[in-house]
Amino acid sequence: MTCRPIATSQRVAERPSLLGIFLFLTSVLCASADGSPEPHAFPPSRYDIMIASSPFALATRAAGPAPDAPNPFADLVVATLAQINDPVTGARDIVTIRSRADQSTFTLEGNEPNHDGFQIARIDWSDRVGETKVVIKKGAQIGTLEFDKSGIVAPPARQKAPLPVRRGR
Questions:
Q1: Is residue 126 part of a domain?
Q2: What phi and psi, each to the nearest 5 degrees, are found at residue 133?
Q3: What is the pLDDT of residues 82-110, one digit of tens each?
Q4: Domain coverage including residue 102
Q5: Number of domains within the chain
Q6: CA-to-CA dists, residue 143 to 68, 117, 151, 157, angstroms
Q7: What's the pLDDT tens digit per position in 59-85?
Q8: Angle (CA) 91 96 98, round 5°
């Protein structure tokens, strides 16, 4: 086995040429318009159509009409009711109203508004227990209140007197 020297043309082919490196670098640098090699993000508006028709988007309710003012009579029930006959001023109604939410009470007398602005508009009297209705108003809102049916206890039913036991003669 003899060693023979490598030709000069083979040595050049094994080494990367400076010309190849130069061409590669200039093509990379010229690829972007502004001279930076990083790609730029697309504007977010590009995806609006895709998001609008996406089957994975959460269903949202369309904006409806603005909610009305809260109902001031929603949690109120009649607790007690009385009518006082005064020979000087005449009949005067007194209504105690209880809130189901916080169990607080307030009293309305006659037709004058209380400190919260509630006042008695009228009372629909009934002979049956718990069936009387009170119509009250607060500002321009009017509501009908009833007794809390769960708080009314019916009188106990009369029991028949036991028959005397007769013993045989």
A1: yes
A2: -120, 145
A3: 888 888 878 888 999 998 888 889 999 98
A4: 77-149
A5: 1
A6: 15, 13, 21, 35
A7: 777 676 666 667 888 889 998 888 888
A8: 160
